[in-house]
């Protein structure tokens, strides 16, 4: 009988798969199901399946990352991918990582599943038999990992097992620490790779703490996660861990549980740490993450899309980014942390909305439509907030450049000369009247021509140009507001503040504080 695990964030789909037929008649047993890649890996450790059927798009850990880890750490497990029509680029990624086959969800039939699983069965027969997890050299590791996969009901039997392995640990005053490690993108985590050797060396170094009489143990769940389970002693004495970890050229985060009692709680505490670990998205390497810091969680980025219309219609994408960045920074200051998966999706929704709005306004964005899936994938793959913001800014600037290129192709030499003049003299006391006089044009005619060829009137264009320059000055240093307004052509600080708030949505001082906290 071949053991199968189903992985999909839609519970109804998992149940439908399980009850689709009597799988035992075809030689298969559905031994478990999971809502994401992290849950699936825990089941893999305890159930040792032959086949994993997984969706691609899931929160916490998607099907691409799950496939990568499975094929590198458990090469004998066959992976079958479920996808929609729009996921084919992702399907190619999973196939390149070693997935055996894929099935389209919209047309999924029982026969398609059986054929794919029979193919997996045949592939397994052609491969070498899997390494037994019960080999003496791995028995302790398998036992420790089993504590994470499901609750343990018999504490007495577990204590006896710990004694058999010479692990000094009591069931009261326990603490679990998850060391989440990140390597450079593209690093291999195969068993004999340098990355995997690093994680094993880290375990050896950390384990030395418990050879000197301390109660506890340390082991690697996988090359990117090391767990420390110990009896709580000094709540502040965790510096020994950072001393060891900083000696390695890796990024790491320490997810620290509260004190708990009872071995049966290890499973649920581990699940809590996995959830907390996702919030390293917001924190620098070396940070400590505790559940009490992330109690105010949100499942959605709080953006009011109607407020974005003015930025989009004026093609002020720098201002649009500043608005989004301000919303994110305010949420961070208030310690209202958005789930990282939802944060990435929030940025993607904004970009979808921008493209939709430009389509409504009949802008020619054919090139943008060809690039958008690659843009969105880059955001989905971003591992940290700074990376996500930088990618979103890059995409908005790419949109602006494409529209500017289209616009410039239609601008007359006269208007282009005027734009160049404004760019060079915006800090001076210039106006539509002075520009008309400078270029020997009628003021009314210039006003109409400027609006037709640039898409906005002269005063708005000049104000946006000046405020963008002001924002650059406020970001790069922490100057006096009076100095800034003088440098961009606004002699009256009060008027400058009004214009800045109207365009950016906040006062100049508030904007400056975002970058100089």
TrEMBL record:
Database matches in Gene3D superfamilies: 3.40.50.2300, Homeodomain-like
Pfam families (UniProt xref): HTH_18, Response_reg
Keyword Transcription assigned: yes
Keyword terms of this UniProt record: Cytoplasm, DNA-binding, Phosphoprotein, Transcription, Transcription regulation, Two-component regulatory system
Annotated HTH araC/xylS-type domain residues: 416-514
Keyword Phosphoprotein: yes
Modified positions (4-aspartylphosphate) in chain numbering: 55
Domain Response regulatory residue range list: 3-120
Domain of life the protein comes from: Bacteria
Subcellular location: Cytoplasm
InterPro entries: CheY-like_superfamily, Homeodomain-like_sf, HptR, HTH_AraC, HTH_AraC-typ_CS, Sig_transdc_resp-reg_receiver
Annotated protein name in UniProt: Response regulator
Gene source species: Paenibacillus alba
């Amino acid at each position: 009988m071949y053991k199968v695990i189903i992985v999909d964030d839609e519970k109804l789909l998992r149940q439908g798969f399980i009850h689709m037929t009597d799988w035992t008649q075809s030689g298969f047993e559905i031994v478990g199901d999971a809502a994401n890649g992290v849950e699936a890996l825990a089941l893999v450790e305890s159930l040792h399946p032959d086949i994993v059927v997984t969706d691609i798009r899931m929160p916490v850990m998607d099907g691409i990352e799950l496939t990568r880890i499975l094929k590198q750490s458990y090469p004998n497990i066959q992976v079958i991918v479920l996808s929609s029509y729009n996921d084919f680029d992702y399907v190619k990624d999973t196939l390149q990582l070693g997935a055996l086959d894929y099935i389209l969800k919209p047309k999924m039939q029982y026969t398609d599943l059986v054929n794919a699983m029979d193919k997996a069965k045949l592939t397994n027969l052609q491969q070498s038999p899997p390494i037994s997890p019960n080999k003496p050299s791995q028995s302790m590791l398998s036992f420790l990992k089993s504590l994470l996969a499901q609750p343990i009901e018999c504490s007495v039997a577990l204590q006896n097992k710990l004694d058999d392995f010479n692990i000094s640990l009591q069931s009261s005053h326990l603490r679990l620490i998850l060391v989440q490690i990140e390597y450079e993108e593209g690093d291999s985590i195969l068993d004999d790779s340098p990355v995997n050797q690093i994680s094993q060396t880290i375990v050896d170094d950390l384990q030395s703490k418990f050879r000197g009489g301390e109660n506890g143990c340390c082991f690697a769940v996988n090359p990117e996660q090391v767990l420390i389970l110990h009896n709580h002693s000094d709540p502040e004495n965790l510096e020994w861990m950072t001393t060891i970890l900083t000696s390695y050229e890796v990024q790491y985060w320490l997810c620290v549980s509260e004190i708990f009692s009872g071995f049966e709680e290890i499973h649920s505490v581990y699940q809590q740490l996995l959830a907390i670990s996702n919030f390293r998205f917001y924190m620098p390497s070396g940070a400590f993450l505790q559940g009490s810091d992330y109690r105010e969680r949100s499942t959605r980025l709080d953006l009011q899309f109607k407020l974005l219309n003015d930025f989009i219609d004026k093609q002020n994408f720098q201002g649009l980014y500043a608005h989004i960045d301000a919303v994110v920074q305010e949420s961070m200051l208030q310690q209202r942390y958005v789930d990282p998966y939802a944060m990435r999706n929030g940025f993607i929704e904004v970009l979808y909305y921008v493209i939709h709005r430009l389509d409504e306004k009949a802008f020619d964005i054919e090139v943008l439509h060809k690039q958008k899936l690659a843009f969105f994938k880059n955001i989905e793959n971003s591992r940290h907030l700074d990376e996500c913001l930088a990618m979103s800014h890059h995409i908005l600037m790419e949109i602006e450049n494409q529209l500017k290129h289209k616009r410039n192709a239609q601008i007359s030499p006269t208007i282009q000369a005027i734009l160049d003049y404004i760019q060079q003299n915006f800090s001076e006391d210039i106006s539509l009247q002075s520009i008309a006089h400078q270029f020997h044009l009628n003021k009314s005619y210039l006003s109409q021509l400027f609006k037709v060829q640039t898409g906005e009137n002269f005063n708005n264009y000049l104000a946006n140009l000046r405020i963008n320059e002001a924002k650059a000055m406020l970001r790069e240093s922490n100057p006096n507001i009076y100095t800034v307004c003088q440098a961009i052509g606004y002699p009256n600080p009060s008027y400058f503040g009004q214009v800045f708030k109207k365009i950016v949505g906040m006062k100049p001082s508030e904007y400056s504080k975002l970058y100089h906290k």
